[in-house]
Amino acid sequence: MARLVAEDIAVRFGTFEALRGVDLTAESGSFVTLLGPSGCGKTTLLNVIAGFLQPSRGRLAVDGKDITALPPEARDSAMCFQSYALFPHLSVADNIAFGPRQKRVARDETVRRVDGLVRQLGLVDHAGKLPNALSGGQQQRVALARALAVAPGLVLFDEPLSNLDAKLRDQVRNEIRALQRDVGFTAIYVTHDQAEALALSDMVCLMNKGVIEQKGAPRDIYFRPRTRFVADFIGAANLHRGKLCGGAMSTPLGVLHCCHEDGEDVEICWRPEAARLGGDLSGTVKAVAFQGAHVDVFVSAGPETVRLQVPGELNVSIGDTLQFSVPPEGVIALEASANA
Amino acid sequence: MRNAIRIGLLLAPGVGLVLAFMGAVLYRAVAQAFGLYDFSGTSDGLSLAHWQDVLTTKRFWRAFQWSAYIAASSAVIAVALAYPIALWLRKPFRGSLILSAMLKAPLLVPGLVAAFLLVNVISYHGFVNEFLVWAGVWAEPRRMQNDSNGFAIIGLQVWKQMPFAFLLLSGAVQAIPDPVLNAAQDLGAGKFARFRKIILPLTTKAMQAALVLIFIGAAGDFSFQTVAGPPSVNSMASYMASLQGSEGDWNGAAVVAVMLMALSLFGAIGLTALVQLITRTLGRLA
């Protein structure tokens, strides 16, 4: 287990700033996810942590030791690549044993680690096979076993599930989390899939345009987004901008109440599932999408359209007028984004 | 069975033609080596006498060793030089395209022209001697042309063949995905370990192909030997030409030709096995 501290990390490619002063702390044994849209800098940050990229500014430390200038081979980390990056000429067992051999781990210990990981990850029948004889899910497990075989303090995951189908993704995701808890390594996990981030993480760092826009526990990020970007990126959010006076904002749907300080130009948001049927807000149903347990209803009033998530039993049709309410504690005032 | 026949029939026009032409040449050379088809008109029928005549001469074995030495040295040096260049140019950088194009330029220069240019440079009154004498480094010109170690020929072969090895190796090196090399580095492999354990095994086939093709080309060299080689020794090709041209011994020349083919075949097999052995040994080292 290792505690990672990244301070003021910046990376510049020519005139483009890929990272702009990122601060991040991953506590020992925690599962930290770097989440964000394509090009936000999450893989760049992972590459800096792995040592494949040198930051143009900033400092990296693991357990208090400065590792900023260390090459990847000298760091106490191992990476699971998006493309698995297995060595095609080596068998599964040799792939897993590669790291311990490079780190000059004793032969008996290497064999013990390889046997243990092969058993733990269900690869016993495949140990002698070459990677190209395995399915995507099996290759991902080999990549994970290979990373864990060096017993690193820090395991870095670069979108490891993006090449798997939905069912396998769920399965391997659960396996990764269970293994992380069992073995106790610190994990830094890059993904652009918010569901994956929320399900796996102890801490989510939501990145946008080279900075961490918000970091915190998945529940905090979801229920207390600080900026419009976070609210919009994580889950679905209904957003309104206007004057907040006496804890109320007038919208085309009606008056929304919230527990925040008044202001002239305030942006507020609420989640679709916060809506309750019946109340002072109303609009015309523009679209309905039955999702089984719930129904997504899109309601319009004037120029604004909001999304409501209501129980599946509700029977509404397009063109109906729907009355609803949003409790004040479900309405969040947003800060202006540094990247706006 | 029916499928096999169908495939055979489909391949026959292409492969059959190649085999027929190759077979005709091979048959002719082998038959001549055993006394048939002597164009001087004195064919004495099937015989091993020409083998005995050629294989018992010192001149032949000297040519055989010389060609094997030139071919093996040229192949190994060309590949050894091409590897680091291919690795260096693996990732594009400013000017790498021009550099890569320049490295391939020798492929466009005919061997005889290259040998002639080299002679201009290293002859007794060539550029090097004239310059060094003018600069006061040497008091008088030195003899560098037709050196008895064959350095000039090996240099020419390497100059001419290295781009070819570079083409083959750079393709193989570039085909290794970055994440694979990054993964090796991430797991603790330094530069040399990455080369031994990842790059070398994944480019072995290209290296073997480069070694074999350069070896075969250099073993059959005629023009470099004629222009820049030492006068005291023949290459197999120049010996063959001399037997047939000056001495009119068609059958003896055919024996040399068959032995040249044998040298190419066994040299290629030997180099392939050697590469396999070296790759395995290096891969096993911690």
UniProtKB/TrEMBL annotation, chain A:
Domain ABC transporter: 4-234
Keyword Transport in annotation: yes
Molecular function GO labels: ATP binding
Keyword annotations from UniProtKB, A to Z: ATP-binding, Nucleotide-binding, Transport
Family: Belongs to the ABC transporter superfamily.
Protein name per UniProt: ABC transporter ATP-binding protein
Matches recorded under Gene3D superfamilies: P-loop containing nucleotide triphosphate hydrolases
Automatic annotation (TrEMBL), chain B:
Pfam families listed in its UniProt record: BPD_transp_1 (PF00528)
Domain ABC transmembrane type-1 intervals: 64-271
SUPFAM superfamilies named in the record: MetI-like
InterPro entries: MetI-like, MetI-like_sf
TM region(s), chain numbering: 7-30, 66-89, 101-124, 206-230, 250-275
Sorted UniProt keywords: Cell membrane, Membrane, Transmembrane, Transmembrane helix, Transport
Classification via Gene3D superfamilies: MetI-like (1.10.3720.10)
PANTHER family: INNER MEMBRANE ABC TRANSPORTER PERMEASE PROTEIN YDCU-RELATED (PTHR42929:SF1), INNER MEMBRANE ABC TRANSPORTER PERMEASE PROTEIN YDCU-RELATED-RELATED (PTHR42929)
Similarity comment text for this entry: Belongs to the binding-protein-dependent transport system permease family. CysTW subfamily.
Protein name, per record: Spermidine/putrescine ABC transporter permease
Organism, as annotated: Devosia nitrariae
